[in-house]
Amino acid sequence: MKVRTFLFSLLVYVNVGAVLVVVGAPLLVVLVFAPRRWYVRRSFVFWLLDLFYKSVLAAFLVPVEIVGRERFVGNGPKIIIANHESLLDIFIVGALFNGEPHIWYALAYYAHMPIFGFLVRNLLFAVNPGRPAEAARGFMRGLRHAERYGLHLALFPEGGRFNDGTVHSFMRGFAVAARSLGRPVVPIFMDGNGRVYAPTSWSVTWHPLVVTVGPDFVLDSKESDAEFVATLEQWFVTVVRSNPGVH
Fold first, then answer.
1. In what order do the strands lie in the sheet with 209-213?
2. Domains in the chain, ordered, with CATH?
3. What is the dihedral of CA 110, 69, 50, 109, to 10 degrees?
4. pTM of the full structure
């Protein structure tokens, strides 16, 4: 690791540590003492969560350009899907919610991380693609929660973290959710996150980030889940091809 990268990484970790103390600690207190069914109906909890997302993102000291921000929320709860390169993805998508109530599906891997794992177990619904029965139960719990409390639902349809610049096959969970909840799906492509904070490295690299928010995609009653999944996959492929060499 170069000295420059080391110093930048150190500064970012100090910043993130400060955020955890100042913002993360109060959030943890709420999650420890309040049941999920209580805090999903409290706007101040999502205000605090919004502050946490945005503070962590700011702590990384990299510029973030958002294309199509106005498409993200409004007009009722939606299903948000995004590519997944880095832990940073969660904070970028989370910041886009701008305090609106939401829940996540996340890889079970995150539930075992120190500190952050506690947030995952209390704020998200962990899904393990390697255990289909367990994943199905977690998925259905999330659907019921999103429907009951009118929450946005966010997930990573590739079912893993990939930093190779290609679009991997999507799992069909978001199509099932769209049909079950009758909600539009909004795709988000994040470019460069894996270069800033790669899954296999503790170092942080300065690199500008570009986030592209797509239009609402509505599942037609005559459209199969597979066709809907293919349509969304193609949107991501088109965006990747329109940004060659940036990823």
1. 64-67, 209-213, 185-191, 79-82, 152-155, 102-107, 124-127
2. 62-241 (3.40.1130.10)
3. 0
4. 0.88
What distance in Å separates the CA atoms of residue 187 and residue 173, rounded to the nearest whole number?
Answer: 14
3-state helix, strand, coil in the chain (%, to 5): 50, 15, 35
User: pLDDT tens digits for 207-216?
Assistant: 999 999 999 9
Q: With a cut of 50, which residues of the chain have pLDDT below it?
A: 245-247
Coil, strand or helix: which one is 177? helix
Tokens in use for 244? 């060659």
Residue 23: CB partners within 8 Å, gap ≥ 6?
Answer: 48, 51, 52, 55
In the DSSP assignment, the letter for residue 246 is: T
Please state, in angstroms and rounded to a whole number, the distance separating the CA atoms of residues 52 and 97. Answer: 12
